[in-house]
């Protein structure tokens, strides 16, 4: 990790989330004053599908599978602070560094996942959750839940583009998990190649 990234990570670890409703993505009713989003996709049937998808999600598979790098990389654990960065082809110096904190995790026989909240420096304030669950009939679903409002000036200035980017990111998360399960993919154990290649650059 570069010295610049390390400084930003140290600052993020010392910061508190920039919104008061920490952990609210666990609730059925999301807090007022934010844009709300819930999207889910059917993954299959049975505990094996739940386990495979859950490990992929806890391993930041959604983010890695849609072009983000995760620093430092480790399976999601409550209280962990990470920097998410866009790792686009041919772009040696990603401009956007997104600080987040894992605010809850769950690992139960019928549901596996986590939620993370935004920290100062994030273009939004709010929370996103990534949950794989199995219903009473054994059907397995992956759901993304979010509440957020724009925080950074550049995000507010380009509001239509920012909203579109969030929508596309969430659609990408759903697609990445469904593809990983359909292909028999395991949970990531290391950053994707793009993430490793970007690691030495701020």
Distance between the termini: 9 Å
Q: Roughly how much helix do the residues carry, as a percent range?
A: 25-40%
Give me the strand/helix succession.
Answer: HEHHEEEEEEHHH
Identify the overall geometry: globular
Strand content: 25-35%
Give the radius of gyration. 16 Å
Structural class: alpha+beta
Mean pLDDT: 83
Count of individual beta strands: 7
Low-confidence stretches: 158-162, 189-202
User: How many strands, what sense, and barrel or not for the largest sheet?
Assistant: 7 strands, antiparallel
Strand order of the largest sheet: 1-7-6-5-4-3-2
Number of helical segments with 4 or more residues: 6
Quick structural summary:
With 202 residues, the protein is an alpha+beta fold.
């Amino acid at each position: 990790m570069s010295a610049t990234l390390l400084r930003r990570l140290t600052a993020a670890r010392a910061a508190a989330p920039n919104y008061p409703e920490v952990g609210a993505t666990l609730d059925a009713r999301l807090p007022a004053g934010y844009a709300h989003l819930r999207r889910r996709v059917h993954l299959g049937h049975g505990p094996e599908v739940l386990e495979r998808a859950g490990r992929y999600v806890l391993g930041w598979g959604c983010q890695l599978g849609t072009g983000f790098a995760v620093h430092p990389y480790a399976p999601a654990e409550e209280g962990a602070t990470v920097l998410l960065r866009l790792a686009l082809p041919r772009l040696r110096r990603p401009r956007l560094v997104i600080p987040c904190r894992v605010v809850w995790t769950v690992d139960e026989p019928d549901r596996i996942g986590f939620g993370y909240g935004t920290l100062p420096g994030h273009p939004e304030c709010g929370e996103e959750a990534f949950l794989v669950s199995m219903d009473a009939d054994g059907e397995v679903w992956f759901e993304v839940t979010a509440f957020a409002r724009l925080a950074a000036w550049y995000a507010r200035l380009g509001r239509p583009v920012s909203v579109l980017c969030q929508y596309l990111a969430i659609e990408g998360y759903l697609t990445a998990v469904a593809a990983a399960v359909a292909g028999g993919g395991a949970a990531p154990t290391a950053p994707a190649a793009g993430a490793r290649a970007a690691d030495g650059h701020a």
